[in-house]
Design a protein that fits this description.
123 residues; alpha+beta; 3 helices; 4 strands; globular
Length: 123
């Protein structure tokens, strides 16, 4: 069986789609082109030169004290990014939590994440 690379885009979340270094995060935080707000989440958006969108998350213990809740937020953001990144332009996106998500259910969290991605796709 020959090794061939498929031309069909996959909906995987790869290492190239993540902001990894502090310098990458600093670039987005220092000069964002847009700031998108929801009641609990905020996203900083900046164009990049890498020909693919990338996402990063800065979810602090102060805003979300339990690791279970922080990981839930990160999983939801990664999943929505994975599903929508094919439609997106070359942007670096960093999500932060503005205020505690205590009392926020999974469906509302997912809606806030989706609303941010919709605003990014529109522009």
């Amino acid at each position: 069986m020959p090794n061939t690379v498929s031309a069909i885009p996959t909906a995987r979340f790869t290492k190239e789609q993540r902001l990894l270094t502090p310098a990458d995060f600093r670039e987005v935080f220092d000069a964002p082109e847009r700031k998108l707000h929801q009641s609990h989440l905020m996203a900083f958006v900046r164009s990049n030169m890498r020909n693919k969108p990338r996402v990063g998350m800065a979810i602090t213990k102060r805003k979300v004290p339990t690791a279970v809740a922080r990981n839930l937020i990160k999983r939801q953001i990664r999943e929505q990014f994975r599903l929508k990144n094919i439609k997106m332009e070359d942007k670096d996106i960093v999500f932060i939590v503005k205020k505690s998500i205590k009392g926020l259910d999974k469906k509302e969290l997912k809606n806030q994440i989706n609303n941010i991605f919709k605003k990014i796709e529109k522009k």
